[in-house]
Predict the structure.
Amino acid sequence: MSATGASWYDVLGVEPDASTEEVRSAWRSAIADLDPSERRFRLLNQAAEVLLDPARRAEHDAALEAGRSDEPEPEEPVATPTTSPATPTTPAAAVPPTGSRLPLVPGWALVVLAVLAVLSVSAAVVVWVQPNERVVSAAEGGNEIEESAEQARATAERAVGPVLSYDYRSFEESTAAARSYMTVDYQEDYDQLVAALEPNLEEVQPVVEVEVVDSAVVRTSGDRVDVLLFVNRPTLNKGMDEPVVYKDQVTMRMVREDGTWLVDDLSTTPLQE
């Protein structure tokens, strides 16, 4: 425990015996009125990352019981967008997470990483620096805005799996399913990354799945909603006996076209363990 005695429960303002739904509700309420560039926004997300993950919450509880906490004043999250097939994460973000998660990153993957970094950084600028954006608030938004944002969030949860997962044995089917959730503009960016992945599929033999841990609406502006998701990515490559599970924070920009919510942009950030 730190000198201040702070814990992730204190950050979200919930009791240690709070249910998952209570934690989720506290997190969504806490970030609803914050700008994503604020340090507290990132801190609240870190708290939710731990407390909404049963295994990490159990570790945190054990640390608290032992009279210590290794996460009272967390460092800023690593702001390196990534995703990959050699350690796949997705055709749309097909580059292995940075750091020491993988023993080897093939040279071709570094090329994809460079492309992805440019796309992800530009996406972050577009998502968070819009002059007419406003934070979703139940008090000011009204039922119509709240319902629309909830529809966008639900679609984002359904879309993130197809968009970020794929199987080398059925790659065409996987990418076709992903495109059905995207705007035409985002399909063009996605196809560039798919083209970079295809030559290496047989060599790497990636099988990437996506499991949604939780999600929340961050911002809304007319027919555009930004959704934040926590996801796990079990990834199995050639020669591996068991999949490696990567954890990511995903930001998806959803836009409504002809009454249908579609993915218009996406960026990922690896979560700190």
Observations:
- The first strand starts at residue 134 and ends at 135.
- The chain has nine helices and seven strands.
- The two ends are 18 Å apart (CA to CA).
- The CA atoms of residues 93 and 116 lie 6 Å apart.
